[in-house]
Amino acid sequence: MASHAYIKLVSSSSQQEVTLEEVRKLLKYYREITGKTGRQLGWKYEEAAFPYEFAETPDGKGKWFYLRAADKDNYRYIVFAVDSDHTNNSEIQYNIIQVTLPDDATHGDKSKANEFSKFMAKKLGGELHLFNGRIMHHKA
User: How far is CA 8 from CA 17, 74, 86, 101, in A?
Assistant: First the structure.
């Protein structure tokens, strides 16, 4: 069964709404900064830190995208979507970034999904609900 984590943008977040394109830009920024780290260290760290390419299906266009790995032994897929959520039947609506691991995801996918989620939650000052149910609060 697929597992989910999500980042909730709360009142203390640096922004209250996020688009799918902004999520994509955050992941591209992550790939860029890990590439710079690798160049400083003299090895291709970017490939190890971000072993995926961006992909989208016609039915998911504008709703969700996924990261597809070239190395199918250690990594496969991670799916990202943006949605809104009403918490505890309240009137307050929160914008969320949902991170989904499909049924055939590997342990490597789960590790990378946790890593990417923590990075985005920290950049946005969001409340990260991890795959294991724990919650991490980040301040903007």
Answer: 10, 29, 11, 18
